[in-house]
Structure formats: structure tokens, C-alpha cells
Fold this sequence. Notes:
Oligomer: single chain
Strand content: under 5%
Helix content: 55-70%
Largest sheet: none
Number of strands: 0
Number of domains: 1
Shape: globular
Number of helices: 6
Amino acid sequence: MASANGIGLSAQDRLDGAALLILRLGLAWFIFLWAAHKIITPQQYQNLARHFDGVEVSVAQVMLGGWGQIALCVLVALGVLRYLSYGSLLVMHFFTVTRRWEGFLDPFALNDRGFPVNRNQVIDLAVLAAFIALVLLIRRDHFSVGGWLGRHDRPRWWM
């Protein structure tokens, strides 16, 4: 438990905070890499939108989405506006998972060269579970800007 004034952290609080810091940074990095690729290779994501969603998007729209995701990744990495930022990345990733559900039905499928073609779907599920855990444990996320503000009686909207 935190001390009476709410500033000090117990050993368990520090362990919880460290675990969530690692989880938060790992998830932010994971999504950041995908977002950065939207900036680097927007045509690839135009093709994905056409193939999976049947929609046409411009290069500018893909890049705007990528920059928006990068901004959210920065907020998540810092732990700012936690419910909004963590929740936004969770919803985005959930959308990705729902678009690729058929791969879950055949997780061991191999292509003609023996490469596992549905391996990313398994990774997607693990990442989705990690996002859900991060959101559920948000109040234990002590080593974040929002956690620090909460311990120092700062405005709640930052948390």
C-alpha cells in the first residue's frame, strides 16, 4: 500500500509499477513500429485497406493515421491520459484482431515453403491480452505521469 500521504510506494507497489512500466513501454513500441511503417511505406497500407476492408484510402490518410498512432504511442509510453491513450490503442488493436480472425481457426497452417502463415494472429492475441491487462491494472501503473500526478493530488483529467 502507498503511505498515508499517498506519495511513498511500498515494495509491492514498486514491483507492480515496474512490471506495468515494462508492459506499457513494450506495447507502445510494438504499435509504434506498425505506425512508423505507415509513414515509411504508406502504399502497403493502402493495399491492406483495399484487400481486408474493401476501401480506398489516400497516402495522406494512411500517413495521418500513422502520425495519430505515433502520438498515442508517445502518450502511452509516458503514461499520460491513460484511460484515453491505453484504451485507444486497445480498441485499435482489437479492430486489427477482428479483421484477421480466420487465421485463429488454423494456427498451424503452412505455405508451400513450410512457413507458418498464421503466426502473426497468435502474436496479435498475446498483444491483445497484454493491452487488456494494462487497462485493467491502470491504477497500479505507478511509474507513469498519470500515476505520479495521482500520488501528488494533481488534476485527475491527466491520469
